Amino acid sequence: xxxxxLNIIWLMFGGIWLALGYMLAGIICLILIITIPFGIAAFxxxxxxxxxxxxxxxxxxxxxxxxxxxxxxxxxxxxVWLALGHIVTAFxxxxxxxxxxxxxxxxxxxxxxxxxxxxxxxxxxxxxxxxPGSPGPYQAQHHYPR
Length: 146
What we know:
mainly alpha; 5 helices
């Protein structure tokens, strides 16, 4: 119940504007073919920016050098500006007592706004290993001596 209440307050006091910023970045990235992965990541984060409480960001185990290079490009082109938007919004939210949890949630979104590629947004109640075929917490590979 608390998550729903925080998400509704978040939506009214900053979530819509942040999501619109990510959508604008996504639309701009869809103009060129080479930046389509950035646009997809921006739209994914826009949905997260609308309803962040009850979700978390995890690293994709399959990401590698292409995600790293893409994140460097994203950081220069859009990441810094979106992170600044989070900082300004968090400052404005922290002015009121009821806005302090929102400001903390906003500051937690800065890492994904700076480096979105190679990340996945999952519900907080989902296990850490959401990928089919990846070892789960009880399916880890054990090597026993013979």
